[in-house]
Amino acid sequence: MSLDLVNIIFGMKVRQARLEAGLTLSDLARQSELSPSYLTEIEKGRKYPRADKIVKMAAALGKTYDDLVSIKLAPSLRYLESTLSSSTIRRFPFEEFGLEPADALGLVTREPDRASALLHAVVEITRRYDLRAEEFLRAALRSYQEIHENYFPELEDAADQFAAALGPRYGFDDGNPISLPALERILREEYSYTIDDQAIAATKELRHYRSLVIPGRKPSLFINSRLYARQVRYILAREIGYRYLNIKERSLVSTPDEVDSFQQLLNDARASYFGGALLMPRPQILSDLKKLFDMPNWNPESFSALLSTYGVTPEMLLYRFSELIPQFFGLKIHFLRFHHVAGTDAYQLVRHLNLNQLSVPSGTGLFEHHCRRWLSIRLLPEPATGRHSSGDPLPVGIQMSEFLETGDKFLCIGFGRRMVLSPGLASSVVIGFRVGPELRETIRFADDPDIPRTLINETCERCPLRPDQCAVRAAPPILLEAQREQLARKMAINQLKIRSTPAE
Fold first, then answer.
1. Which residues, 6 or more positions from 281, have their beta carbon under 8 angstroms from its beta carbon?
2. Separation of alpha carbons 447 and 310, rounded Å
3. Which residues are bridge partners to 15 per DSSP?
4. With CB atoms counted within 10 Å of each terminal CB, which end of the chain scores lower, N or C?
5. Strands 396-403 and 453-456: what pairing?
6. Other CB atoms closer than 10 Å to residue 257's CB: what's the count?
7. Main-chain dihedrals φ then ψ at residue 314, nearest 5 degrees
8. pLDDT tens by residue, 33-90
9. What tens digit of pLDDT does each residue of 121-172 get?
10. Pairing of strands 422-434, 333-341
């Protein structure tokens, strides 16, 4: 979104002057010989009139020409220009949430004092919590996905159409999974790619990248040779998504160091969605989910077997679950990915979708300690001492989690793994289902008595469990104690009020 601050400030001043003069849009239009619709565009910051028109408007408003064109703002609006100039506001994707930029900024011209304070507060919050513009845009993308329940039928249809068109030629029709050689052939033969799996790993400065693309008439795709075959399959499938969907604005490295725009983030997510749908076609994965949910008892082997069936990583599998389960099974879910650096007490929530109002302590996690009873943290494996094989067994777990405060229950299932490009980094991915009547009707093994039941909380700082009740507490309950002290003060004040009220 492009914001023209001069237009916005001018429109805001015109509206204020018109209201101060007690004029309607029709009144001002008549006196300045302009149309009401054109004046509306001016007040919303969409248009900036020529000098001769400004002269007529100034006369009708009882202002001088210089009064209107000056960008000097009143003290109450001193934050407005710097706020609107911030990358946080300028890059926010209003359009993706059903708003025209000018409509969203209409608040500025209607209630400038309040809008200035509101927008400034947003920017200050991002600064206080060290939220970079990129993180703000990622939060916007996550909200966009959650609004759509992370299901995009047009991308599902695109993957189906691609498979129907090229499947017979490359051998992945009739439900057969698409192979890694087939993906490579498609990129080379259909899109004129060259593929190099040596240069990245051989270049010290690039070894942390999974892949890198140099666009052109004959694009070059560089893939890190240290990746497993299932990770390479995903990179190839996603790259096909970029080309088949005709995506231009995109990241060229994985994982990108910088985010240029929300459109880039959204396009990357669209290509990733296409890639997942191509590797795990909707009909097959829905059929396998139905079989999994129909099991009378939890079976971790059947769950883990899906990784081999589709040749995907745990994150790819569970994220695909998050795209289809709410739409086709009617269950509310959440998806969490945690990281843990060896030798530290830091557990970082690096990715999440929250479709079931789970109390996810993402922001507070900057300063607080996530509850160590979460399945996401229990599944994190110990750091690797050397390169591990893709065939090594992954930690698999299930847990019925119940929040201490609310009693809300979630059935959580997930995997742990070590990161191939970062041996000292452990990761876990978990998908959780809110427990209710519809869950037990859909997932038969939900009542399996062998599933561990665990009380959890958001963070240790907010947890009421005593040390003898929780052996994994990572920090004292300082925030909980502060809340209790505040409540005690309020009660003491109320008692003083009662005592000082004279009896009738």
1. 159, 160, 163, 175
2. 28
3. none
4. C
5. parallel
6. 9
7. -55, -40
8. 999 999 998 987 788 999 999 999 999 999 999 888 886 666 555 556 666 666 656 6
9. 766 666 665 566 677 778 888 888 988 899 999 999 999 999 999 999 998 8
10. antiparallel
